[in-house]
Fold this sequence. Notes:
Blueprint: H1 2-10, E1 16-17, E2 24-25, H2 34-40, E3 50-56, E4 61-64, E5 68-70, H3 77-87, E6 95-102, E7 110-120, E8 126-139, H4 143-149, E9 156-161, H5 168-180, E10 186-192, E11 195-200, H6 203-216, E12 219-231, E13 236-247, E14 255-257, H7 260-265, E15 272-278, E16 282-285, E17 292-295, H8 297-302, E18 315-324, E19 344-350, E20 360-364, E21 375-380, H9 389-392, E22 402-407, H10 411-417, E23 420-421, E24 428-429, H11 436-449, H12 451-454, E25 459-461, E26 485-486, H13 499-502
Parallel strand pairs: 3-8, 9-13, 10-24, 25-26
Antiparallel strand pairs: 1-2, 3-4, 4-5, 6-7, 7-8, 9-11, 10-11, 12-13, 14-15, 15-16, 16-17, 18-19, 18-21, 19-20, 21-22, 23-25
Amino acid sequence: YQRHKADTSRTPQNFCLCCTCGVPIPPNPANMCVACLRTQVDISEGIPKQVTVHFCKQCERYLQPPATWVQCALESRELLALCLKKLKSSMSKVRLIDAGFLWTEPHSKRIKMKLTIQKEVMNGAILQQVFVVEFVIQSQMCDDCHRVEAKDFWKAVVQVRQKTVHKKTFYYLEQLILKHKLHQNTLNIKEIHEGIDFYYGSKQHAQKMVDFLQCTVPCRSKASQRLISHDIHSNTYNYKSTFSVEIVPVCKDNVVCLSPRLAQSLGNMGQVCVCIRVTSTIHLIDPRTLQIAEVDGNTYWRNPFNGLFNPKQLEEFIVMDIDIIRDQKLGAGAGMRSNKHTLAEVWVQKTSEMNTSQQYHCRTFLGHLLNIGDLVLGFDFANSNINDEYLNKMNPHHVPDVVLIKKSYDRSRRVKRRNWKLQEMARDREGMDTDDERQYQDFLEDLEEDEALRKNVNIFRDASKIPVESDTDDDGAPCVSLAEMLEELSLTDATGGEGADMMTD
C-alpha cells in the first residue's frame, strides 16, 4: 500500500494509471493506454488486407462490379473510389477518417492504400488505427475487347458521307467530335473515300452520334438493321444496325447556283452565291448585293444545289482597280445584309495573263480586305464550261465573269508563323489521297480567317514552335491570338493528371 501510495503521489494531476502496465495516462473509459488497448482490441479485424482488382490490358480499364468497366489513372480519385467500394461491406462497423495511396512501382501490379479508421471500443473509448491494404491487379479481358478479338465487335455503325471533293466539313466535324468527346465510345473509326465510319458496341451510342450530327451539320439520315442470330428458346434477336448519314455536298468557299424559287424565298437573293461557312446551316452571301441567308438541312433537301467549281479550279487574280460602293439600295422584300463585309467593284487580271491586256470586271464582298496590287483567288465564269440546271437557264447578263472568293497570302509564311495546332482522332486510313495535306492546310487557314468558326474548335498552343515576329514576314495574313489558345495537357508520369494531388507520405 505504501508503494502504491508513493506511485500515485508522483502521478501528475488529472492523470490516471493504466490498469495493465501502470503508465500515467489521461483518463479514458477503458482506463488503458493506447499500446495496451491495441493488444486487446484490433479494430481492423474483418477488413481484408489483400484484395483483388481486375484490369483489362487491351482497353486499360478496371472492373467495377458487377459489370461496369471504368477508365482510371493510377493514384486518381476514380481509382481511390473504386478500391474503397471493394472494402465498403467490411468497413460497415468502423468510421473511415482518411485514405490515400502509397507509391508502388507502376509495373508491379500492386496498389497500396493507407487507411485511417476509428471505432468505439471498451466502455465507449474511441480508438484510431492506421493500416495498409494491398490491392493485387489481375488481368481480365472485358466484354468489348472479347468482341474485338472474336471479330464480332460492333453492333452498330454510323456511315457519314459527303459527296464532295474537299473535306473542310469533315475536318470541322472532327474538331466538334473531339471537343464534345463523342469519340470515346467508338470501337473503331475508319476513314474511307467520301466519308468516315464510326463503329459502336451498342445501338444507343450510335443513335447518340446520329443525333449529334443532325444538330451540328446539315444532313439527312437513314437507319437499317440486319438479323445476325435468333434464339427461339428465349425469343431474343441479335441485330447489327447501320445508320447512313449524308451531309450536304456544299463546303466553305463553294460557288453555288440556287433555284429561282429558293432564291426568292431567301429574300430575292441573286441565284449565284458564295458559301462563306457551313455549321448547322449553310451560310450564303450574294457577292453583288452583300445579302446573306442561311439554309438548313430540310430546306436544302427540298431545293438541292451543288458547287459549280472544283477547289482545284481556283485561279489567282491581281487587283488592278477597286471602287468601294457606299450606297447600295436593295429591292423590295430583300433580306439581311452582311455587316462584316464591304461591297466593291473591282477590275482584276489573271496572274497567268499578265502579258495580255485581258481584264475582268466584277463585284465582290471582299472590299474591306482588298487593295490595288493584292492577290485574290476566284473562279472564272467567262472561260468555263459549267453544266448546271439552274445556271444554264439564267439570263447571261446576270452571270458574273469572275467571282472572287478570298484574298491570297503566302502559304509558306503562314505555316512558319503558325504556333498552334489541333487534335486529331485516331482512325484507320485506307486509300487516302495525297491531296489531304493541302486540304488540311486550307482548313487551318479558314480557322485563322473566320473568328466565328474558331469558337466551336479547341485550339492548342504548339510548344514546339517558336513564333517569329518580324516586320518583313508580316504580310497582313490573319492569325489566331494567344488568348484563344489552350494549353495542351501532357501526362509526364504514369499516375495520371490528378495523381500528384492524391499522393501521401
